[in-house]
DNA sequence: CACATAAGCGGACTGCGGTCCACTTGTGGC
DNA sequence: GCCACAAGTGGACCGCAGTCCGCTTATGTG
């Protein structure tokens, strides 16, 4: 059980290691762009980056870790929009409006990176116990409280986030042919129902 | 793209095939009982049933199919309780009460077969496009309508079902240490909020 | 600059899910 | 009972995720 060397652990990472991380991320993102995330094998990434297969796993732990790393940048930007960006997404607007905007923004964000998210959420167990999700749950919980909602806020936040699941959204869109608009309106309605006092 | 020979397709299944299906299901359920679903390999099942590996796949399509087949009996019983069983779960009680009972029953059902469901829902894509889920969504939608809820019922039903996701429940219980009672109360509260007019 | 050593590397290897296909066998028609 | 043939079988085989471990190299210390 050794710690995975993460990019932001500042206690130094050897220069060659850092270089390989960059090469791998570049190679991976290129391959994902040209064949789609699900058709990219770990070995292909290794080869494209002129690096041994073991190195890929050493740097990113596993396939899911690599996909997450690819999403990292976009995820950060997205998080900033609702944590510290301008209203109505960021602080400043009334809680319910922020909640509405949050869902819509999340839907768009997920739809933009669907295949990467699907790959990054592969394994049932690890879909939930993940920082990105924790951030969203907390955010929703805070807004619910701010909106004066009473009861088991923590659980209610989890329930709301159920609507914003990548695989669900993808299924509703591609299997059931629901439009993005309908999903967005659905979220706003949903929030209205839940926050209604 | 050929049709998978399902147990209930009455247009005959050869005697030996039926026998092998039984042997496989027995072997699989024994192995799952003794080592847990996640430690059962397809090959082990084949060996335990004294059958070739190819036969396992021919009968059940893939690992997910086998797990679903194992769940089939329990799933049917569970479905019957809310489709045609006695109130408040079955028909006869007011819609909102049935909805509350449905969630509680579902939580208990999922908690009872957690590891099997986790295996059976492995792949993101196929978690949603599945008969069992469709039945639940429809049921919830019908009850919502009956309860006089207006708006995009279909979508609202999907949103409610997000709460009843095996992996979510498992995460909340084992990772966040929420008690079964709290989850059940949470459902009832959630339903109350959503159906409140 | 030389050295010690921890960090990194890479590719052979393992295990598993899933496919393939040449061979066997049950079945319904005669 | 026999025959034709669709249905079924099984195990060799494939591709990929992930591990292992002996070798290499960057680094900071004297």
Question: What's the gist of this structure?
Answer:
The structure is a homodimer of 197-residue chains. The first copy, chain A, is an all-alpha fold and 197 residues long.
Radius of gyration of chain A: 19 Å
Helix content class of chain A: over 70%
Number of strands of chain A: 0
Tally of contiguous helical segments of chain A: 11
Secondary structure category of chain A: mainly alpha
| Unreliable spans of chain A | 6-10
What is the overall pLDDT average of chain A?
92
**Main interface: chain pair and counts:** A-B, 36 and 36 residues
Which key features would you list for this structure?
homodimer; 197 residues; mainly alpha; 71% helix; elongated; DNA-binding
Give the SSE layout.
2 copies of one chain form a homodimer.
Chain A: H1 15-35, H2 42-48, H3 53-60, H4 63-83, H5 95-112, H6 114-120, H7 124-128, H8 131-146, H9 153-163, H10 166-175, H11 180-195
Helix pairs in contact in A: 1-2, 2-3, 3-4, 4-6, 5-8, 5-11, 8-9
Chain A binds a DNA duplex (30 and 30 nucleotides) through α1, α2 and α3.
How would you describe this structure to a colleague?
The structure is a homodimer. Chain A is mostly helical and about 200 residues long. Chain A has helices spanning about 15-35, 40-50, 55-60, 65-85, 95-110, 115-120, 125-130, 130-145, 155-165, 165-175, 180-195. Chain A contains eleven helices and no strands. The N and C termini of chain A lie far apart (about 50 Å). In chain A, α1 crosses α2, α3 (about 55-60) runs parallel beside α4 and α8 (about 130-145) packs across α9. The interface of A and B includes residues 171 and 190 of A. The first copy, chain A, binds a DNA duplex (30 and 30 nucleotides) through α1, α2 and α3.
């Amino acid at each position: 059980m050794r710690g995975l060397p993460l990019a932001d652990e500042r206690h130094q990472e050897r220069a060659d290691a850092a270089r390989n991380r960059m090469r791998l991320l570049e190679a991976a993102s290129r391959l994902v762009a040209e064949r789609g995330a699900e058709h990219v094998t770990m070995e292909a990434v290794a080869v494209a980056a002129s690096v041994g297969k073991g190195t890929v796993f050493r740097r990113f732990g596993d396939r899911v870790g690599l996909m997450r790393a690819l999403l990292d940048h976009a995820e950060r930007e997205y998080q900033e929009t609702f944590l510290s960006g301008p209203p109505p997404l960021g602080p400043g607007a009334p809680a319910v409006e922020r909640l509405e905007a949050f869902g819509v923004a999340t839907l768009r964000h997920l739809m933009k990176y669907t295949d990467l998210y699907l790959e990054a959420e592969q394994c049932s167990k690890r879909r939930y116990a993940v920082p990105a999700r924790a951030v969203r749950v907390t955010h929703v919980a805070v807004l619910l409280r701010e909106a004066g909602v009473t009861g088991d806020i923590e659980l209610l936040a989890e329930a709301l986030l159920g609507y914003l699941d990548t695989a669900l959204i993808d299924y509703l869109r591609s299997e059931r042919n629901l439009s993005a608009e309908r999903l967005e309106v659905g979220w706003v309605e949903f929030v209205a129902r839940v926050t209604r006092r």
